[in-house]
Here is the input.
Amino acid sequence: MQTRPCWVEIRTQALEDNFRYLSSLTPADGELMAVLKADAYGHSLALCVPAAIRAGARWIAVTSVEEGMAARALCADARVMVIGGIIPGQGEAIIANHLTAAVWEPFQLDDLETAARAAGMGPSSLAVHVEIDSGMSRQGANLEHLQALLARFAPDSPLRLDGVMTHLFAADESDGQANQFQLQYMRQALHRIEDAGLYPDWLNIGSSTALVSAVSGELAALAAQYGMKLMLRPGLALYGVVPRFLPEDGPNPALAVAAHSRLEPVLAWKTRVIDLRQIPAGAVIGYNGTFVATEPMRLALLPAGYADGIFRSLGNRFHFLVRGQRAPLAGRVSMDHTVVDVTEIADVAVGDEVVILGTQGEETVSAYDHADAAGTIPWEVFTRIGPRVHRVAV
Here is the structure.
């Protein structure tokens, strides 16, 4: 049966190329953790996990234990890290699926330790990464509570402190003040960990921006100071989008400019024209009559709406691509449909391919175009593309 023509194309080769390019920017002895959380930023975990592994990824990051289990089914050997933490009762699944958990609360360690002992695991056999809240106030332990967590890594405990992590919450701000505050906070945390006689392997820190702005060199120096290896977590750049900041304001403008040219978009979102109609001047288009034709117009109906992830706010103020030209949205975006004006585009026919996000001919509609028009960020543009939009590898 012919399916509803609204789909996303995933260029898995582009994801592989992006990972390899980002790997080339990684400091010596460092490691990349491919961030594939939130269904690989809406790109499909099922398609992106194998691609990342083919590209050489030895670590991947997911949000939850459920995503971790799905990722484990796709790869036998890579380290799969649950960076969103765990909730009570998930320790057994962590062990059964050979996952690595980010932890910052005593109850998380309780759950993991109980499950590990029940599984007969020996001392220091269950690796975890302790997250430090270095200023974001979202998740992680602060310095006040860190000592109690460190005490849990006793010689007879099955728990092993494999890594220490934090999240740079303003890495894309060019003045770097937030970064410096966070790194100073991390120095204090790492000093306390060293004083506790614990020597984790990994400093798990840094994002896409750290790679394409060369902040990673400073992070590598911090890791080396405490005898650790640096692990960086590229997310958006892995999917071919460079986090927006002014290259001339970054610590390495040439690197930022190179990243813009080298990284390849992985995702294209497409649909097809399913109906055409001619309307007279004065006709109303869409809900609440927000668009009234001032002249005769030709309209194309598309089977994609806000239930698929198109922002409703784009109605009357955005465009998609039809036959390599910009076709303005006419009227409000509906739940299942969008109407575009093709009056000025010759020979449009039912079945013509329409690009919602991506390139057609010489024109491109980018994730940043969507984000700017909707008042949001590319991360949301990608992750709100609905599950009924088919993901296909190309």
In short: The radius of gyration is 24 Å. The chain has a mean pLDDT of 94. Residues 177-195 form the longest helix (19 residues). The CA atoms of residues 187 and 222 lie 8 Å apart.
